[in-house]
Amino acid sequence: MEKLIALGKEFGFEGKELLAFVKEQQDEEKRRVDEEREERQRERESKKLEAEERERIRLRELDEKEKEREMGEREKEAQRRHELAMKELELQSANVEVNSASIKSAAKLPKLPTFVDGKDDLDSYLQRFERFAKNNNWDQSTWSTSLSALLTGRALDVYSRLSETAAVDYKQLKEAFEKV
What we know:
2 domains; 180 residues; 7 helices; rod-shaped; mainly alpha
Protein backbone atom coordinates (compact mmCIF):
# COMPACT_ATOMS: atom_id res chain seq x y z
CA MET A 1 0.00 0.00 0.00
CA GLU A 2 2.89 2.32 0.76
CA LYS A 3 4.17 1.82 -2.76
CA LEU A 4 0.78 2.86 -4.14
CA ILE A 5 0.78 6.02 -1.95
CA ALA A 6 4.29 6.86 -3.15
CA LEU A 7 3.28 6.23 -6.76
CA GLY A 8 0.16 8.44 -6.33
CA LYS A 9 2.25 11.25 -4.90
CA GLU A 10 4.63 10.99 -7.87
CA PHE A 11 1.63 11.50 -10.15
CA GLY A 12 0.71 14.57 -8.08
CA PHE A 13 -2.28 13.20 -6.23
CA GLU A 14 -3.04 14.44 -2.71
CA GLY A 15 -5.77 13.97 -0.17
CA LYS A 16 -8.99 12.45 -1.51
CA GLU A 17 -7.53 12.06 -4.97
CA LEU A 18 -4.63 10.09 -3.53
CA LEU A 19 -7.01 7.86 -1.56
CA ALA A 20 -9.17 7.33 -4.66
CA PHE A 21 -6.04 6.50 -6.71
CA VAL A 22 -4.83 4.01 -4.07
CA LYS A 23 -8.31 2.45 -3.77
CA GLU A 24 -8.60 2.23 -7.54
CA GLN A 25 -5.17 0.59 -7.80
CA GLN A 26 -6.03 -1.85 -4.99
CA ASP A 27 -9.34 -2.70 -6.68
CA GLU A 28 -7.48 -3.18 -9.96
CA GLU A 29 -4.89 -5.44 -8.27
CA LYS A 30 -7.67 -7.41 -6.56
CA ARG A 31 -9.49 -7.82 -9.90
CA ARG A 32 -6.27 -8.97 -11.59
CA VAL A 33 -5.56 -11.48 -8.79
CA ASP A 34 -9.17 -12.73 -8.95
CA GLU A 35 -8.95 -13.12 -12.74
CA GLU A 36 -5.65 -15.01 -12.46
CA ARG A 37 -7.13 -17.26 -9.78
CA GLU A 38 -10.22 -17.88 -11.94
CA GLU A 39 -8.00 -18.58 -14.96
CA ARG A 40 -5.95 -21.09 -12.93
CA GLN A 41 -9.23 -22.62 -11.71
CA ARG A 42 -10.49 -22.90 -15.31
CA GLU A 43 -7.17 -24.49 -16.34
CA ARG A 44 -7.39 -26.97 -13.46
CA GLU A 45 -10.99 -27.81 -14.41
CA SER A 46 -10.03 -28.14 -18.06
CA LYS A 47 -7.08 -30.42 -17.19
CA LYS A 48 -9.32 -32.43 -14.88
CA LEU A 49 -11.93 -32.85 -17.64
CA GLU A 50 -9.20 -33.84 -20.13
CA ALA A 51 -7.80 -36.36 -17.65
CA GLU A 52 -11.29 -37.78 -17.05
CA GLU A 53 -11.87 -38.03 -20.82
CA ARG A 54 -8.51 -39.77 -21.31
CA GLU A 55 -9.42 -42.18 -18.50
CA ARG A 56 -12.82 -42.90 -20.09
CA ILE A 57 -11.11 -43.54 -23.43
CA ARG A 58 -8.51 -45.78 -21.79
CA LEU A 59 -11.22 -47.76 -19.95
CA ARG A 60 -13.27 -48.06 -23.16
CA GLU A 61 -10.21 -49.34 -25.03
CA LEU A 62 -9.46 -51.82 -22.23
CA ASP A 63 -13.08 -52.97 -22.32
CA GLU A 64 -12.94 -53.39 -26.11
CA LYS A 65 -9.67 -55.31 -25.87
CA GLU A 66 -11.19 -57.56 -23.20
CA LYS A 67 -14.25 -58.18 -25.37
CA GLU A 68 -12.01 -58.95 -28.35
CA ARG A 69 -9.95 -61.33 -26.21
CA GLU A 70 -13.08 -63.07 -24.94
CA MET A 71 -14.44 -63.29 -28.48
CA GLY A 72 -11.13 -64.75 -29.64
CA GLU A 73 -11.27 -67.32 -26.84
CA ARG A 74 -14.87 -68.19 -27.74
CA GLU A 75 -13.87 -68.56 -31.38
CA LYS A 76 -10.91 -70.77 -30.41
CA GLU A 77 -13.16 -72.85 -28.17
CA ALA A 78 -15.73 -73.18 -30.95
CA GLN A 79 -12.94 -74.20 -33.34
CA ARG A 80 -11.68 -76.79 -30.83
CA ARG A 81 -15.21 -78.17 -30.39
CA HIS A 82 -15.63 -78.29 -34.17
CA GLU A 83 -12.32 -80.12 -34.59
CA LEU A 84 -13.27 -82.53 -31.80
CA ALA A 85 -16.65 -83.17 -33.42
CA MET A 86 -14.93 -83.77 -36.76
CA LYS A 87 -12.50 -86.22 -35.11
CA GLU A 88 -15.42 -88.02 -33.47
CA LEU A 89 -17.21 -88.23 -36.82
CA GLU A 90 -13.99 -89.53 -38.40
CA LEU A 91 -13.71 -92.20 -35.70
CA GLN A 92 -17.37 -93.12 -36.05
CA SER A 93 -16.96 -93.27 -39.80
CA ALA A 94 -13.85 -95.44 -39.41
CA ASN A 95 -15.74 -97.74 -37.03
CA VAL A 96 -18.63 -97.98 -39.50
CA GLU A 97 -16.16 -98.72 -42.30
CA VAL A 98 -14.44 -101.40 -40.17
CA ASN A 99 -17.80 -102.89 -39.18
CA SER A 100 -19.10 -102.81 -42.73
CA ALA A 101 -15.82 -104.31 -43.95
CA SER A 102 -16.25 -107.11 -41.39
CA ILE A 103 -19.80 -107.65 -42.49
CA LYS A 104 -18.84 -107.61 -46.15
CA SER A 105 -15.95 -109.94 -45.52
CA ALA A 106 -18.22 -112.22 -43.49
CA ALA A 107 -20.53 -112.55 -46.46
CA LYS A 108 -17.62 -113.61 -48.69
CA LEU A 109 -15.67 -115.48 -46.04
CA PRO A 110 -15.85 -119.16 -46.90
CA LYS A 111 -13.00 -120.12 -49.19
CA LEU A 112 -13.66 -123.77 -48.62
CA PRO A 113 -15.09 -126.19 -51.13
CA THR A 114 -18.82 -126.78 -50.74
CA PHE A 115 -20.07 -129.82 -48.83
CA VAL A 116 -21.23 -132.46 -51.32
CA ASP A 117 -23.85 -134.75 -49.78
CA GLY A 118 -23.02 -138.42 -50.32
CA LYS A 119 -19.41 -137.69 -51.23
CA ASP A 120 -18.11 -135.80 -48.12
CA ASP A 121 -18.32 -136.95 -44.50
CA LEU A 122 -20.32 -134.30 -42.59
CA ASP A 123 -18.36 -134.69 -39.31
CA SER A 124 -15.00 -134.29 -41.08
CA TYR A 125 -16.32 -131.36 -43.06
CA LEU A 126 -17.57 -129.61 -39.90
CA GLN A 127 -14.23 -130.21 -38.16
CA ARG A 128 -12.40 -128.75 -41.18
CA PHE A 129 -14.80 -125.76 -41.25
CA GLU A 130 -14.31 -125.06 -37.52
CA ARG A 131 -10.50 -125.14 -37.83
CA PHE A 132 -10.66 -122.82 -40.83
CA ALA A 133 -12.95 -120.39 -38.96
CA LYS A 134 -10.75 -120.38 -35.84
CA ASN A 135 -7.55 -119.90 -37.82
CA ASN A 136 -9.09 -116.92 -39.63
CA ASN A 137 -10.41 -115.45 -36.35
CA TRP A 138 -14.01 -115.43 -37.46
CA ASP A 139 -16.59 -114.35 -34.95
CA GLN A 140 -18.45 -117.52 -33.90
CA SER A 141 -21.76 -115.70 -34.35
CA THR A 142 -21.12 -115.73 -38.13
CA TRP A 143 -20.14 -119.42 -38.40
CA SER A 144 -23.59 -120.86 -39.11
CA THR A 145 -24.33 -118.23 -41.79
CA SER A 146 -20.96 -118.83 -43.43
CA LEU A 147 -21.44 -122.60 -43.28
CA SER A 148 -24.92 -122.34 -44.82
CA ALA A 149 -23.38 -120.93 -48.00
CA LEU A 150 -21.32 -124.13 -48.36
CA LEU A 151 -24.10 -126.70 -47.79
CA THR A 152 -25.91 -128.84 -50.39
CA GLY A 153 -28.34 -131.77 -50.32
CA ARG A 154 -29.68 -133.12 -47.03
CA ALA A 155 -27.40 -130.85 -44.95
CA LEU A 156 -28.94 -127.81 -46.65
CA ASP A 157 -32.43 -129.26 -46.00
CA VAL A 158 -31.62 -129.64 -42.27
CA TYR A 159 -30.39 -126.04 -42.16
CA SER A 160 -33.49 -124.77 -43.99
CA ARG A 161 -35.87 -126.48 -41.53
CA LEU A 162 -34.31 -124.76 -38.48
CA SER A 163 -35.99 -121.72 -36.93
CA GLU A 164 -34.33 -118.36 -37.61
CA THR A 165 -32.81 -118.21 -34.12
CA ALA A 166 -31.52 -121.79 -34.32
CA ALA A 167 -30.18 -121.19 -37.84
CA VAL A 168 -27.81 -118.46 -36.65
CA ASP A 169 -26.55 -120.47 -33.65
CA TYR A 170 -23.73 -122.78 -34.77
CA LYS A 171 -24.09 -125.13 -31.79
CA GLN A 172 -27.79 -125.69 -32.50
CA LEU A 173 -27.01 -126.21 -36.18
CA LYS A 174 -24.34 -128.78 -35.34
CA GLU A 175 -26.75 -130.60 -32.98
CA ALA A 176 -29.37 -130.69 -35.74
CA PHE A 177 -26.80 -132.31 -38.09
CA GLU A 178 -25.94 -134.94 -35.45
CA LYS A 179 -29.60 -135.98 -35.19
CA VAL A 180 -29.74 -136.80 -38.91
